[in-house]
Amino acid sequence: MGTRKVLTLISCGANVTVVSLDASEKLHQLSNNGEIKFKERPFQTNDLDDRFLVIGATDNQELNLKIHTEAERRGLLCNIADRPKACNFILPSIVNRGDLIVAISTSGKSPAFAKKLRKQLEAEFGDEYAEFLNLMGAIRKKLLSQDHEPEAHKHLFEQLIERDLVQILRDGDTDSINSLLHEILGEGYELEFLKGMYQ
């Protein structure tokens, strides 16, 4: 659980420090790569010095209460995993597919249900959604470069969505993708060319 939270914070551009006697292999890897600071020792109250946000994700409820109490005393944002009453903010469960971000929150009432929904959505929304949004962004950029007004593009994007471009991307059918792009957008909108605009 703590590892997932760390990865989410890193993806948001946070500078992360982990204090723990028992860290996952992934956290050790992140530390070795210089992506996080890792202190392999028990929590100390001065670990909260000069911090903005604190997350307690331990199995020790006494320690979690200590972290919460000290964070509150200092006026810090604090989230204690699976203990909504010890939080002054709630972290949503997140499905991230590139520029597509889906957040799920039960307002702390049932983190387990949020986790279940996240897993269902992760299965439903695959990597093709990230590819789809990259492709739509490249199409938009190319259209705008031709001095088209943004409102004039609306029906083109609606057609690409209605014709289920996402599913064709999931199937990996390059010929069908190019055929659809040519039909709706005309020449010069081949998949490989558009990919070159964002890869």
Properties at a glance:
single chain; 199 residues; alpha/beta; Rossmann fold; two-stranded parallel sheet; two-stranded parallel ribbon; 50% helix
Task: Write a short abstract of this structure.
Helix content is 50%, strand content 12%.
Structure explained in plain terms:
The protein is of the alpha/beta class. It folds into 3 domains: 2-93, NAD(P)-binding Rossmann-like Domain (Rossmann fold, 3-Layer(aba) Sandwich); 94-125, no CATH class; 128-195. Helix content is 50%, strand content 12%. The protein is built from 9 helices and 6 strands, in the order H-E-H-E-E-H-E-E-E-H-H-H-H-H-H. It has helices at residues 2-11, 25-32, 61-73, 111-124, 128-145, 150-162, 165-171, 174-185, 191-195, and strands at residues 17-19, 37-39, 53-56, 77-80, 93-97, 100-104. Strand 1 (17-19), helix 2 (25-32) and strand 2 (37-39) form a beta-alpha-beta unit. Helix 5 (128-145) crosses helix 7 (165-171). It is elongated. The chain starts with a helix and ends with a helix.
Query: What share of residues are in beta strands?
Result: 5-15%
CATH architecture of the largest domain: 3-Layer(aba) Sandwich
Number of domains: 3
Proportion of helical residues: 40-55%
**Cα-atom Rg, whole angstroms?**
22 Å
* Biggest pleated sheet: 2 strands, parallel
The topology string of helices and strands comes to: HEHEEHEEEHHHHHH
CATH superfamily of the largest domain: NAD(P)-binding Rossmann-like Domain
- Output the CATH class name of the largest domain: Alpha Beta
Biggest sheet strand order reads 1-2
